[in-house]
């Protein structure tokens, strides 16, 4: 076998491991960036596709940088997990130094793309997102409840980024609902980890949780999400008369279905896996999008 052929195979293998390190599948979480768009457009914001795409790409690269850093910090613990031990850093396919270098490059590229959106707030949001996750990776994730709130903040920042990309300020209603929904997902993730992860491989924060506490906390946050959204539908002037509650049934069903999957089927450790394995949640999400567009008036969005 020639030296060139061996080098090409090694380079190809490294590229695959870097792609695995970046976790592009988890970029699906950035759908939160698009959530405020129907209501922002109804309030008079203009839709410009290029800044939105640049912002999504920038956030995706920032996500990958955060994942790489977290994999470096968690490498030893990941080796004790049947599922996580195959991650590039834990398996030794990529060195710690290589992963940190990739994280730095991805973060710099993400900030650069955010700058190209023309919205000064976009790179600031990505920098805040990265800073919070550095704190999370370096120790805050070991503190019960603090870890869940920091996890949820990443989803909220995605929503805020969506507002920034279309040039509108996030409303108090949006921040409340995004925070409640994000916290619900974070608590569900911790419950899934508590149930599915062997004790030896569990993160220290899980010692501060119990199934009963997490079920009760999720019930409270789910109630805030549903009733908060219902009140928003009543109070907001953006919805057309007679269509105020068009999207509410999808929110109620989606929240209850998420609770069912997490608390009855013990899923939730990976929100992306849970979503992709659940046709009900996928259909509900599509229904919410269509109902939201109808409730604000499709003609107002395209005129």
Please outline what is shown here.
The protein has 303 residues and is mainly alpha-helical.
How does the SSE layout of this entry go?
Blueprint: H1 3-22, H2 37-42, H3 49-73, H4 75-78, H5 88-91, H6 96-116, H7 121-137, H8 146-165, H9 172-196, H10 211-235, H11 248-263, H12 271-277, H13 279-296, H14 298-302
Helix pairs in contact: 3-6, 3-7, 3-8, 6-7, 7-8, 8-9, 9-10, 9-11, 10-11, 11-13
Task: Describe this entry's structure for a reader.
There is one protein chain. With 303 residues, the protein is an all-alpha fold. The chain has one domain (19-302): UbiA prenyltransferase (Tetracycline Repressor, domain 2, Orthogonal Bundle). The chain has 14 helices and no strands. The chain has helices at 3-22, 37-42, 49-73, 75-78, 88-91, 96-116, 121-137, 146-165, 172-196, 211-235, 248-263, 271-277, 279-296, 298-302. The protein is globular, with a radius of gyration of 20 Å. 39% of the residues are buried. The model has no long low-confidence stretch (mean pLDDT 89).
Uncertain residue segments: none
Structural class of the secondary structure composition? mainly alpha
Please give the largest β-sheet: none
Global Rg: 20 Å
Number of strands: 0
Tell me, what's the shape?
Answer: globular
């Amino acid at each position: 076998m020639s030296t060139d052929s061996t080098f090409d195979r090694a380079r190809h293998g490294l590229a695959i491991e870097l792609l695995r390190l970046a976790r592009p599948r988890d970029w699906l979480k950035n759908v939160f960036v698009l959530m405020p768009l129907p209501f922002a457009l109804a309030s008079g914001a203009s839709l410009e596709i290029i800044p939105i795409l640049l912002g999504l790409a920038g956030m995706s690269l920032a996500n990958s940088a955060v994942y790489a850093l977290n994999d470096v910090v968690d490498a030893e613990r990941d080796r004790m997990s049947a599922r996580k031990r195959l991650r590039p850093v834990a398996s030794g396919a990529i060195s710690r130094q290589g992963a940190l270098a990739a994280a730095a490059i991805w973060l710099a590229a993400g900030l650069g793309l955010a700058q190209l959106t023309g919205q000064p707030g976009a790179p600031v949001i990505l920098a805040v997102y990265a800073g919070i996750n550095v704190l999370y990776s370096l120790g805050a994730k070991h503190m019960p409840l603090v870890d869940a709130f920091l996890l949820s903040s990443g989803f909220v920042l995605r929503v805020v980024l969506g507002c920034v990309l279309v040039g509108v300020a996030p409303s108090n209603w949006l921040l409340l609902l995004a925070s409640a929904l994000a916290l619900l997902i974070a608590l569900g993730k911790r419950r899934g980890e508590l149930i599915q992860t062997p004790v030896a491989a569990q993160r220290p924060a899980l010692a501060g949780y119990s199934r009963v506490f997490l079920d009760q906390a999720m019930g409270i946050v789910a109630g805030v999400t549903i009733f908060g959204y219902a009140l928003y539908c009543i109070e907001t002037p953006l919805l057309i008369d007679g269509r105020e509650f068009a999207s509410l049934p999808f929110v109620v069903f989606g929240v209850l279905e998420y609770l069912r999957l997490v608390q009855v089927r013990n899923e939730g450790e990976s929100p992306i896996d849970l979503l992709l394995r659940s046709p009900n949640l996928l259909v509900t999400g599509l229904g919410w999008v269509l109902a939201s567009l109808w409730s604000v008036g499709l003609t107002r969005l395209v005129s």
